[in-house]
Structure formats: structure tokens, C-alpha cells
């Protein structure tokens, strides 16, 4: 039976993840092409498209966000209704093509999903990509429920096709990862492909063209402002004299606070679901109808500043409130923060609902490299050989978890691909030895360019490619290094060693991390050399090996003898399958994957057949 | 109906998100307004997994400290950690069988005594129940079924506007046919434990 996201008919209601609702919305618009680079919290959008492929659209995991954006832009030029998805920091990678494609416009229609992460649940920063809507000149939709995620995606794609302007669908983690009922509409046939009309005076932005096109963009945005003025997601509720303007998921928190506190009749609320271009007439009329206004938006005070400017331009004198002690620039909002912030404006006492203090000092559960993860074996080898003498340049992926003691294999990190290039700069200026770590997908994403630069400029770095054969952290998406059998007919496997050699690296070695002795020997040899050296550590991600490659090892480790040496393995290797009980160190057979690294470290660990 | 906020907490790999989605679907099939949320960036790798189910017309998928009418703890240490979310007069249903964090396994940290956890829960909840979910799950057929034992107990507690039969029909409708019988057994065990 076909999945309801594909086959569900009008009137049906299904519980969908926000990200699944985005997929359904795109299908209801007649999507033709989807490109992406995966990244939490966006990943379930491309993964759902990949899983449900039914021939009605083209889908690809691109190798990075810039490439995804360029493929998508080309597809939309070629006439396809196109969606490109990424996490917020991915838009930085894709910003170059983005800021010019809004000048040329794209006849097929293109929507960019930017999945922001206030609170840094799984990101290295909490940048506010509504800035990009303003910087690039993109209309912006900000859903707050699963239903809106579906409906706004469809509307954004329609708007993009109608106006030929790229449109941003901006979500936050809470929206991507909420579940709610979604009422379906008709899923039409895929959109017609718009015939490309050759027009270099529009599509080749040499300076003379770019100057003209910038003007065209500004004209388009003015026209789209009318859409925002009349959007069903930009609505006023209530008649109170205290005005509240809210956007994004904060709209949901606000609705719950007003209902719970019984404040609904004291306030007027303007919700901005389509938040760019600003509906200035709508906002202006609202400002004139209230005595004061409070702006509720997560992260940067963008609307707040824009509304202050409007108040000034309109010659009004009402106070504008926004960021305060409760509603800060950092992190996520919640109902409590909004209730406390509103209380003082509504002559109420701010009340914290907190009634239980938590226990302090409870044992924490930091996310950890899995039992049987080959990265642990690599980090252990490196730490044994280099200790604190080398500096560890890390990158983005599961292997960043090597930051934790006892492995301590991460000293600095900026972004995808920075391990190689920042490692080079660090080594050049400090004269210290640098060991850089990068995963396979991240290597293809943006490690390759840094490696070319390292060779070209004669840098001194030892790069370890932690090749686990998949994009592990974000959920095992395809990348060019994935096994050819798994890729199937649609994609071509690329060999990392050939690429490394092709980049001009001559000191290249391959290791199998679970062969500890050989791995250590290779590291030792490379340690004695200088220049650009690459070690490729090959071993499939253990979760991936079990699920996709169906590999299972029949034996598990056990502790045959206790003692100081056994304790040392526990403390220095720290596999999550180890635990301590009254009798000493033990191995949890249900967690042990049979990698057998512990027994290479100490003879006190031995292998045996699993008990039933 | 009365609006209900349920805060659920457990450990990555336990399958708590599957349980969360099943509960949300059960509620939707009962004609209730439902929104549910989850935070699981690094869930697979042994971290804490928090999720929510909000019934009866809430719009927000997030629960703040002091707002949860029910705390559903899939692991006892996480129940204890999640207590600040409990509202005044709220209820707790918790598993009693620990999954020790890595610091405890290595002997660096100490897992709180179960008596301490139950005392703390009793001290701040109107009603509370404790079940050995892992054992009951294994009795039903697998460790993962322990989550459904807990959901069965929740549905039998009288805290929700629907009972275990609603959960049973959702299990039949949404789970793989090969898993249905085991999970129905798990519901039965959870319900029986609560009654007994």
C-alpha cells in the first residue's frame, strides 16, 4: 500500500511530523525536483522524499549545500518546480548562488527550506536565517504547526512559480520535530515544466545585467508585499489595547499563554506567518489601533527594529517592547517566558509555574560514540601515540563526540570541512603538530578543497579520513563514498583514496581501525614525516553495518581477568559496553558488537560465542 | 475536555519516540486535538530523549517546567531528572529498572537509590505508579515492549480521556502485524500491574 503522504486524498487527516508535512505540501503543489544536504533538524524532509520516491519527482542528496542550491537553481531555470532543503548553517555554504539567483529569478519556481535551530539542539550556532530573507530578497514563510508546514510549503512553491522569485520557508527545530494532525488537499499531477527562454541579458549577471536585475528584484518584492498584506497567515485577533505582534513558533506559545491566563480579551494579536516582505499597511493599521505593542519573535529582534522604524516614520508615539529579561536573543522561547514578559504589560503578576526544584548533581548522559564505533579505536590509537603533544582539529559529524574524555580528540572546530584548512593555518602559525579528523561525507562536502589548498601551499597536517561508509550523524544518508551495492543504479560510488591521490597527496595510507596493531604502526610511520599526510580509516558505521549491510559478529568480549590493567582499559578505552559491578569490570554482551579492540589492548579481555 | 500535558522522558535507543507517536495517534483516532514534540538531535547515541504529547487544544509542542500534568518516565533516573516539569497536583508513572549512564558504568558517578527516587516522586505528585517495565516487556516478548507496558499503565490510570482499548486498537492499526500480539500482551501486563 502506498504511503499516505503520497496516496492520501483530500479530506483525510493524518498525524505528521512537521518535516513530513513539508513533503506533503510540496507534493500538493506538484513538486518536480528536490535537492538537499541533510542536517538536523531538516533531515526528515529529504529522507522522506528519498524513501517515498514514486517517479513523480527527481530527488538527490547533493554533496554540499552550495551544490544543492546550484543544482536546484539550474533545475528551476530549466522549468522545474523545485525545493532545496538544508539546516541553517548550510545556507551560509549556499549563500553565494542564493544571493544572485534572487536577481535573475527562476521561472520554474524555487523554495529554500532553511531549518534553524534556536537553542543549538544539534548545531554549532543559533544564527537567525530570517536575515537571509532580507539580505537575499526572499519572501519568507514561517509555519508554527504541522498543518501550516504543509499549507505554507504549497503556497511558497505556488508563489515562487507565479512570481519567478525564490522563496524561503523558514522553520525552527520545534516546528520540524513537532507532530500534529494535517488535513490533506488534492495531490495534483506534477507541475508543467516551464520552457526556458534564452535570455542572457537576464540570466548572465555581468555588472550591466546585475544592476538592472537588482531593480527588478526590488520591484518584485514590492509586488509580493501585497501578497503578505492579504495573506491568510497574517491576521489580527482580539480588540484589546495592548498589541502583540508574533512570528514563528512563538505564535503557538502565545496562543497557549493567552488561553491559560484568560488574557485573550485584553490584547490584540497580529500574527505574521508570512513575515517578509513586511505587510506595512497591515502592521501600520494595527499600530494605530493599540496603545503599546510587544513584539514576540525568537532569536534576533528583526521585526522589533523594523516596527520601531515604522513607528518613527509614521510619527506615532506608542511604545514598542520586545527583547527583555524573559524574551532574550539567546535560545528558545516557551510559554513561561512569554507569560512572564506579558504579565507586566497586562498589570498581572508574573508567576513562575515551577513547583519542584530538580535534584542537583545527577549523573549526566552525554551523547557518546556507540559501542563498537570504529572512531573510538582510531582516537584511542592517536591518543596513545600523540597524547597532548598534537592538537586535534575536528569536524562535523558523530566523530565530534571524540571531544569527551578519555579520548579528548577535539581541540577546535568551526564548520563543515574546517578540520583540514583550519588545521593547516593553526600548524603554520603555532608550529604545533596537528592531527585533523574528517568523516567521509564531510570530506566530500568541503574537505576536498581544503586538501587541495594544503598540498598547493605546502602545509603540514596529518589528516585522518574517518570513512564509515555513510552519513552517520544525520541518519545514514547516501554520499559518494557509500558502498556501490547500497547506492544501486541511481548513483556512482567514488573512491576516497583516488581522490586524495588526485589532489596531489603522496603520503597516503589506509588502515582498518579494528586492527589496532597495524593502525598504530601506520600512525607511527606518518608521525615521523612532515607535509600533507592522509590516513584513511575504513570501517562501516556499526549501526549502518547492522541495519543496512546486515553484518553481525557472532562473538562478544568478556573480562577473563580483573586487575589494574583491566581498569586501565575501562578508563582509557571507555567503550559504552563496559560497566563495573561488585566483582569488577564487565562487558555487557547485549551492547558489545564484537569489534574485539579491547582484547587487543589487554589480554584480560577475551572473546567467546554469544550466549543464545 | 480538560487539556492535558504529558512530558515523556527516556534514553536514546529505548524506543520512546515510537511510543510517543503511538500515543499521539491513539489520541487523534479518539477524536482529540493533539500536538506532540520531540528533541532528538543525538538521541541514538545514549543521550536523554524528551518528548511531549499535549491533548485537548494546546498549540505549543513544548512543555515548560511546572506545566506537565503527567510525567511518564521510561527510565527511573530520567523520571527524577524530569520532575521539575511536573505541575502542581500532577501525576507520575515510571519504570523502575535503570539504564546506567556511562559515568555510573565506569564507577565515576553513583546512580541514585530507587528509594530516593520514589520518595522524591511521592513528595511532589498527586498520584504515582511504578512498574518494572523491562521485566514486563521481556515477559511480553521483548525489552522494547516495556514502553508499551508503560503506555498501557497510563491508559489504565484514569488520567486520560480514553482507556487501554483505544491503545489496543491503535496497536492493531499502526504497528507491524508481527509485533501486534506482543504489544497487546504488553498493554495487558501494564494494565494488570496498575490494577494490582
From TrEMBL, chain B:
Entry's Gene Ontology molecular function annotations: oxidoreductase activity, acting on the aldehyde or oxo group of donors
| InterPro entries to which the protein is assigned, alphabetical | IorB_Oxidoreductase, Pyrv/ketoisovalerate_OxRed_cat, Pyrv_flavodox_OxRed_cen
SUPFAM superfamilies xref list: Pyruvate-ferredoxin oxidoreductase, PFOR, domain III
Q: Which intervals hold domain Pyruvate/ketoisovalerate oxidoreductase catalytic?
A: 12-191
Q: Which UniProt keywords apply?
A: Oxidoreductase, Pyruvate
The entry's protein name is: Indolepyruvate ferredoxin oxidoreductase subunit beta
Amino acid at each position: 500500500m502506498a504511503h499516505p503522504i503520497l496516496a492520501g486524498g483530500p479530506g483525510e487527516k493524518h498525524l505528521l511530523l512537521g518535516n513530513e508535512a513539508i513533503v506533503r505540501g510540496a507534493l500538493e503543489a506538484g513538486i518536480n525536483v528536490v535537492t538537499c544536504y541533510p542536517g538536523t533538524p531538516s533531515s526528515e524532509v529529504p529522507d522522506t522524499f528519498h524513501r517515498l520516491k514514486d517517479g513523480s519527482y527527481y530527488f538527490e542528496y547533493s554533496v554540499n549545500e552550495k551544490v544543492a542550491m546550484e543544482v536546484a537553481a539550474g533545475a528551476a531555470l530549466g522549468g522545474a518546480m523545485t525545493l532545496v532543503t538544508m539546516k541553517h548553517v548550510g545556507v551560509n555554504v549556499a549563500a553565494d548562488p542564493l544571493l544572485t539567483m534572487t536577481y535573475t529569478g527562476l521561472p520554474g519556481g524555487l523554495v529554500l527550506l532553511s531549518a534553524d535551530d534556536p537553542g543549538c539542539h544539534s548545531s554549532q550556532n543559533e544564527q537567525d536565517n530570517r536575515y537571509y530573507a532580507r539580505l537575499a530578497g526572499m519572501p519568507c514563510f514561517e509555519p508554527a504547526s504541522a498543518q501550516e508546514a504543509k499549507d505554507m510549503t504549497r503556497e511558497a512553491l505556488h508563489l515562487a512559480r507565479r512570481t519567478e522569485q525564490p522563496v524561503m520557508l523558514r522553520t525552527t527545530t520545534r516546528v520540524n520535530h513537532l507532530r500534529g494532525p494535517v488535513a490533506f488537499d488534492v495531490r495534483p499531477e506534477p507541475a508543467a515544466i516551464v520552457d526556458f527562454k534564452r535570455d542572457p541579458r537576464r540570466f548572465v549577471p555581468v555588472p550591466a545585467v546585475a544592476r538592472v536585475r537588482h531593480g527588478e528584484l526590488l520591484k518584485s518584492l514590492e509586488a509580493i508585499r501585497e501578497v503578505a498584506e492579504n495573506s491568510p497567515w497574517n491576521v489580527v485577533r482580539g480588540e484589546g489595547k495592548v498589541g502583540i505582534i508574533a512570528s514563528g513558533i512563538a505564535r503557538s506559545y502565545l496562543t497557549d499563554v493567552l488561553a491559560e491566563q484568560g488574557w485573550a480579551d485584553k490584547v490584540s494579536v497580529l500574527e505574521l506567518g508570512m513575515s517578509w516582505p513586511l505587510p506595512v499597511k497591515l502592521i501600520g493599521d494595527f499600530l494605530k489601533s493599540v496603545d503599546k505593542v510587544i513584539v514576540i519573535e525568537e532569536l534576533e529582534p528583526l521585526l522589533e527594529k523594523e516596527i520601531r522604524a515604522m513607528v518613527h516614520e509614521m510619527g506615532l508615539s506608542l511604545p514598542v517592547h520586545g527583547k527583555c529579561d524573559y524574551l532574550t536573543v539567546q535560545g528558545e522561547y516557551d510559554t513561561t517566558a512569554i507569560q512572564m514578559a506579558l504579565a507586566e504589560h497586562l498589570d498581572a503578576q508574573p508567576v513562575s509555574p515551577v513547583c519542584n526544584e530538580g535534584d542537583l548533581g545527577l549523573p549526566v548522559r552525554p551523547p557518546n560514540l556507540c559501542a563498537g564505533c570504529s572512531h573510538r579505536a582510531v582516537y584511542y590509537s592517536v591518543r596513545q601515540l600523540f597524547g597532548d603533544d598534537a592538537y586535534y582539529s575536528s569536524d562535523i559529524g558523530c566523530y565530534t563526540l571524540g571531544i569527551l574524555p578519555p579520548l579528548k580528540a577535539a581541540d577546535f572546530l568551526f564548520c563543515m570541512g574546517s578540520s583540514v584548512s583550519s588545521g593547516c593555518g593553526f600548524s603554520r602559525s603555532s608550529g604545533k603538530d596537528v592531527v585533523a579528523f574528517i568523516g567521509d561525507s564531510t570530506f566530500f562536502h568541503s574537505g576536498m578543497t581544503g586538501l587541495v589548498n594544503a598540498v598547493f601551499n605546502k602545509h603540514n597536517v596529518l589528516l585522518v579520513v574517518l570513512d564509515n561508509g555513510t552519513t552517520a550523524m544525520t541518519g545514514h544518508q547516501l554520499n559518494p563514498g557509500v558502498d556501490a551495492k547500497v547506492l544501486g543504479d541511481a548513483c556512482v560510488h567514488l573512491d576516497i583514496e583516488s581522490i586524495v591521490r588526485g589532489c596531489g597527496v603522496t603520503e597516503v595510507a589506509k588502515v582498518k581501525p579494528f586492527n589496532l596493531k597495524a593502525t598504530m604502526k601506520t600512525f607511527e610511520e606518518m608521525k615521523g614525516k612532515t607535509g600533507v599526510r592522509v590516513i584513511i580509516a575504513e570501517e562501516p558505521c556499526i549501526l549502518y553495518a547492522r541495519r543496512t549491510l546486515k553484518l553481525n559478529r557472532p562473538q562478544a568480549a568478556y573480562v577473563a581477568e580483573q586487575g589494574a590493567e583491566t581498569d586501565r582499559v575501562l578508563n582509557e578505552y571507555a567503550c559504552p559496553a563496559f560497566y563495573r559491578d561488585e566483582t569488577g569490570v564487565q562487558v555487557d554482551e547485549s551492547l558489545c558488537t564484537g569489534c574485539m579492540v579491547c582484547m587487543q589492548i589487554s589480554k584480560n579481555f577475551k572473546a567467546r560465542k554469544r550466549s543464545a | 475536555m480538560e487539556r492535558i500535558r504529558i512530558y515523556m522522558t527516556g534514553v536514546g535507543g529505548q524506543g520512546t519516540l515510537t511510543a510517543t507517536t503511538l500515543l499521539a495517534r491513539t489520541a487523534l483516532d479518539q477524536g482529540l486535538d493533539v500536538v506532540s514534540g520531540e528533541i532528538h538531535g543525538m538521541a541514538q547515541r545514549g543521550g536523554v530523549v524528551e518528548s511531549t504529547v499535549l491533548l485537548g487544544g494546546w498549540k505549543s509542542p513544548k512543555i515548560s517546567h511546572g506545566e506537565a500534568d503527567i510525567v511518564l518516565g521510561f527510565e527511573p533516573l530520567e523520571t527524577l531528572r524530569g520532575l521539575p516539569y511536573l505541575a502542581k497536583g500532577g501525576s507520575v508513572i515510571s519504570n523502575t529498572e535503570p539504564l546506567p549512564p556511562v559515568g555510573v558504568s565506569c564507577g565515576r558517578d553513583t546512580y541514585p537509590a530507587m528509594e530516593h527516587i520514589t520518595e522524591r516522586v511521592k513528595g511532589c505528585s498527586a498520584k504515582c505508579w511504578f512498574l518494572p517495565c523491562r521485566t514486563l516487556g521481556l515477559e511480553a516478548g521483548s525489552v522494547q515492549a516495556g514502553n508499551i507496558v508503560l503506555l498501557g499503565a497510563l491508559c489504565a490510570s484514569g488520567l486520560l480521556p480514553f482507556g487501554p482499548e483505544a491503545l489496543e486498537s491503535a496497536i492493531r492499526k499502526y504497528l507491524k502485524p508481527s509485533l501486534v500480539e506482543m504489544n497487546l500482551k504488553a498493554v495487558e501486563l501494564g494494565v494488570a500491574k496498575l490494577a494490582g
